[in-house]
Amino acid sequence: MRILIINGPNLNLLGKRQPSIYGDKSFDEYIHEIQKEGVHVSVYQSNVEGEIINTLHDAKADGIILNAGGYTHTSVAIRDAVAAIEIPVVEVHISNISARESFRHESLISPVAVGCIFGFGMTGYELALDYFLKLKK
């Protein structure tokens, strides 16, 4: 099974940026903890909207875990890219976006994702990975 994790803007700063919200581990440190036998996980991070869209279009995976960061609330183009591909996408956010500033309460991506996981910290990625493993069975 091939899973692609796509992280959007500022997620390259995990472990440094607002540790009270996002934790104190880098994504590289965390991803090694959730490796599963028989699953190839690749990670892509970009601060550039168009690069995220190109990665969604070009993906060769059985499932995508997408944390679009701030683009979640603003990017019709990323929403359209998710809707245009046949690969199932699970939307993940480290923080509970519904408990934060009001401008973060609406996700443009949620309606076109197969599911959404918010507010469980980095564990959200593992929960999404578990979903894809169960889907495969």
UniProtKB/TrEMBL annotation:
Name by which UniProt lists this protein: 3-dehydroquinate dehydratase
Record-level GO BP terms: amino acid biosynthetic process; aromatic amino acid family biosynthetic process; chorismate biosynthetic process; quinate catabolic process
Functional pathway: Metabolic intermediate biosynthesis; chorismate biosynthesis; chorismate from D-erythrose 4-phosphate and phosphoenolpyruvate: step 3/7
Function text: Catalyzes a trans-dehydration via an enolate intermediate.
Subunit description: Homododecamer.
Active site: 22, 93
Transmembrane domains' residue ranges: 108-133
EC number: 4.2.1.10
Homology family: Belongs to the type-II 3-dehydroquinase family.
Superkingdom of the organism of origin: Bacteria
Lyase as UniProt keyword: yes
Species annotation: Brumimicrobium glaciale
Catalytic activity entry: 3-dehydroquinate = 3-dehydroshikimate + H2O
Binding site for substrate: 67, 73, 80, 94-95, 104
GO molecular function: 3-dehydroquinate dehydratase activity
